[in-house]
Specification:
single chain, mainly beta, 4-stranded antiparallel beta sheet, two-stranded antiparallel ribbon, 0% helix
């Protein structure tokens, strides 16, 4: 996830099922995912218009 300056972006990996590959999604404030609009991108979280926050933990392996 990247969160810097005025134009904060989140880079998320969408994991496919056994028949499809994964893909990276680059999302910004105002973008919609699964029917919810992103209203804030922090260093470790995404906040949505429905009040939910999803905390992102980077894999350090």
């Amino acid at each position: 996830m990247v969160a810097s300056g005025e134009n904060k972006l989140a880079i998320l990996e969408k994991i496919g099922d056994k028949n499809s590959s994964s893909e990276s999604l680059i999302l910004g404030v105002g973008d919609t995912i699964r029917g919810r609009r992103i209203i804030e991108i922090g260093e470790e979280f995404l906040a949505f218009d429905d009040g939910e926050k999803i905390y992102i933990h980077e894999d350090t392996n």
